[in-house]
UniProtKB/TrEMBL annotation:
Pfam families: DUF2459
Native organism: Methylobacterium tarhaniae
Protein name: Urease-associated protein
InterPro entries referenced in this protein's UniProt entry, alphabetically: CHP02117
Length: 231
């Protein structure tokens, strides 16, 4: 039994190491004295999203000619920040809280061959992060300007566009929010936390997908490899 445990541990460590994605030193961490953009990971019990400054995101979308993302930021212009998350279309919309978790729906979302359709959830946030998400773990990151532009470009590609416009699916789960049709397929090897980690990796941060499968794992991964700033 001890040998089996050791073997499993070594296998997990080796898999994590082999699948780890390096960061980009030219993007992260920002150079001393460089103007930065504050981005926060909002990690709940089973889901994570990114809290982004709306005005800066809108400027990045405009500079990149990302019309769909610019339309989204315009729709939420009354709010200083946007929380954006990605997930399974069926599970995300049907399970607003941990208490309403449906395990059959969760297993179907994780193990459907070929993955399942995805959605983006966008929330306008006016309160301070701790007040807006009192039950979440919040990891504060200072990104370089160039890194944030790359993150914004990756986010823009996550929206499904129809005639150049993002596809609105209806009201979101809480606060001033909307669901949008999203690119990508949700499954065990690509869950919401992998999507969050992927955007941060675009911004230059190193990530470890195996650890990032769970929100707490992603938060620990960032603490170990990216050394985030205090909130």
């Amino acid at each position: 039994m001890a040998a089996l445990v050791v073997t499993l541990f070594v296998t997990l460590v080796l898999t994590a190491w082999l699948t780890a994605r390096p960061g980009s030193p030219s993007l992260y961490p920002p150079a001393p004295g460089e103007e930065t953009v504050t981005v926060r990971l909002v990690a709940g019990p089973w889901h994570s999203g990114l809290l982004l400054p709306r005005d800066t995101l809108a400027r990045a979308a405009e500079e990149a000619g990302a019309g769909a993302l610019l339309e989204v930021t315009g729709r939420f212009r009354a709010y200083p920040a946007l929380e954006v998350g990605w997930g399974d279309a069926g599970f995300y919309r049907a399970v607003p809280t941990l208490q309403s978790l449906d395990w059959r729906l969760a297993l179907r979302a994780l193990f459907t061959p070929g993955g399942r359709p995805a959605v983006l959830h966008v929330v306008g946030v006016a309160a301070e992060p701790g007040a807006a998400f009192p039950e979440a773990e919040i990891v504060t990151l200072q990104l370089s300007q160039a890194g944030f532009r790359r993150l914004a470009a990756a986010l823009a590609q996550s929206f499904t566009r129809r005639d150049g416009h993002p596809v609105v699916l209806g009201p979101g789960l809480y606060g001033p929010s909307l669901f949008y049709e999203a690119q990508g397929r949700f499954g065990l090897l690509h869950v919401c936390n992998h999507w969050s980690a992927g955007l941060l990796n675009e911004a230059g941060l190193p990530v470890t997908p195996l650890l990032d499968t769970l929100p707490r794992g992603l938060a620990l991964d960032l603490a170990w490899r990216a050394r985030p700033h205090a909130p």
